[in-house]
Structure to design on (204 residues):
């Protein structure tokens, strides 16, 4: 359980820093109550994590040897993709994730009522986070980890990682976001996927 928890914690933390959902939390927390945004964002990420783990459990019905090869292939594929993406980024360029998050937030908040009630803010943060995370590399990685590792370890590790990243985004806000190099985080994420691919190979 401990190894699954640690793997999930590390992989999700590195993948989420500077991700679209990270910037959604940053932008929303600069406009609305940090407490409400924290509640909505974390609720969306917890639901996504639980669904991802359940999907991973369904995948566990695949014969274990084939499942491990699939896990290795996924991690290597993500590793190459992230390193390639990092190589195409300019150190001075604005984050594409931040631009996408800004567009999503502007579109969603334009539909909020004038009084901006607490429930409306929480639900808006929840749905923006949930749909931004759907199909994201973090979700796929969580599914892959849950398919061949301890269920509770992967779940708690991913939830803690999401909570840490959300807290950084909400508390630090735009000040921290400006210090994050999307290129460096992307490259680190790619290397981390290769490390987990190597670990998975030794487990075959």
């Amino acid at each position: 359980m401990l190894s699954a928890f640690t793997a999930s914690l590390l992989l999700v933390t590195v993948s989420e820093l500077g991700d679209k959902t990270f910037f959604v939390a940053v932008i929303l927390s600069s406009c609305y109550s940090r407490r409400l945004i924290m509640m909505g964002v974390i609720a969306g990420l917890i639901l996504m994590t639980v669904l991802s783990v359940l999907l991973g459990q369904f995948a566990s019905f695949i014969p274990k040897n084939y499942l491990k090869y699939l896990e290795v292939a996924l991690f290597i594929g993500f590793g190459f993709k992230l390193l390639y993406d990092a190589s195409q980024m300019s150190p001075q360029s604005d984050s594409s994730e931040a631009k996408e998050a800004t567009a999503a937030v502007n579109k969603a908040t334009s539909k909020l009522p004038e009084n901006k009630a607490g429930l409306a803010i929480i639900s808006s943060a929840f749905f923006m986070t949930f749909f931004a995370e759907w199909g994201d590399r973090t979700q796929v990685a969580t599914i892959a980890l849950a398919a061949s590792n301890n269920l509770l370890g992967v779940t708690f590790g991913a939830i803690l990682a999401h909570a840490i990243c959300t807290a950084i985004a909400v508390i630090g806000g735009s000040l921290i976001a400006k210090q994050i190099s999307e290129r460096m985080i992307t490259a680190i994420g790619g290397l981390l996927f290769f490390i987990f691919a190597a670990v998975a190979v030794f487990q075959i």
Summary: The radius of gyration is 17 Å. The chain is about 85% helix and 0% strand. Residues 75 and 141 are 8 Å apart (CA to CA).
